[in-house]
Amino acid sequence: MPTAQLSNGVHLSYDDHPGPDENQDQDVPLVLVHGHPFDRSLWDPQVAAFAGTHRVITFDLRGYGESTARSAPQVTDFGDFARDLEALLDHLGVARCALGGVSMGGQIVMDAYARFPDRIAGLLLADTAPAVDTDAVKAFRRETAERLLAEGMKGYAEEVLHKMAAPYNPEAAAHVLRMMLAAQPQGAAAALRARAERPDYRPVLPRVTVPSLVVVGRDDTYTPVAEAEAMHAALPDSQLRIIERAAHLPNLERPEEFNEAVGDWLTRLA
């Protein structure tokens, strides 16, 4: 389990799958960013599908997964996540990558594009939304953060489970529950507070100059299809894929359909 001590003092746990030949020039690496409150194992189906043909990099965000075991400060500003990502790219010698994220991970991807667009060859935005939270949602995130610190992850995880992965996808739901129960309340709470204050990424989308893929589960209630359609319309060079019989995490719930869309997107980048 590699761990990077980044130039900003943060430790991140990651996996770097080199592809068929780590010494051979290949397409840009595929870097995938998980959401809340998960870890890099969220991307296991994509690693299995693409690590044989592409360099694939997954990592645990600050405060999540195995990154919590290291001496790293809690995130205080949502931009900390993108700054960590850029420092990880530096650590791994990645000049440019195809960058994807789901849910909060998609918002981190948009934040990263706003900060260092020249290092991003393509965007994958799955079940995410660019707009700032309403005052009510901000308050709910802060209240949830306090609840996680007071009660731990179990009650919250059981309540949101079937919004994350629909009940007709039991294997995916079991994986999601394991990740949520393993999450550290302190890291999850810090991320919720920072996420409540994130900027509006809608102005970023029309400025994106690279091929983009927008994916959404048909039954996602957190970020409905209409949100994905609006992002697709705002992005100058994008494709939209709606995954049937999936909720908020189609990459786990319907990996074959999700991977087909990602494969087509990677072909466009090549």
List the helices and strands and how they pair.
Blueprint: E1 3-5, E2 11-17, E3 30-33, H1 44-50, E4 56-59, H2 79-92, E5 97-102, H3 104-115, E6 120-126, H4 135-151, H5 154-164, H6 170-182, H7 185-196, E7 212-217, H8 225-234, E8 238-243, H9 250-253, H10 255-269
Parallel strand pairs: 3-4, 3-5, 5-6, 6-7, 7-8
Antiparallel strand pairs: 1-2, 2-4
Described by strand count, sense and barrel closure, the largest sheet is: 8 strands, mixed
- The CATH class is Alpha Beta
Q: Please tell me how large the radius of gyration is.
A: 17 Å
Q: How many discrete domains?
A: 1
Structural write-up:
With 270 residues, the chain is α/β, with parallel strands linked by helices. It has one domain: Rossmann fold (3-Layer(aba) Sandwich). Helices cover 43% and strands 16% of the residues. The chain is built from ten helices and eight strands. Strand 1 and strand 2 form a beta hairpin. The longest helix is centred in the middle third of the chain and has 17 residues, at 135-151.
Briefly, what is this?
This protein has 270 residues and is an alpha/beta fold. The protein has helices at 44-50, 79-92, 104-115, 135-151, 154-164, 170-182, 185-196, 225-234, 250-253, 255-269; strands at 3-5, 11-17, 30-33, 56-59, 97-102, 120-126, 212-217, 238-243.
Please describe the structure with a list of short key phrases separated by commas or semicolons.
270 residues, single chain, alpha/beta, Rossmann fold
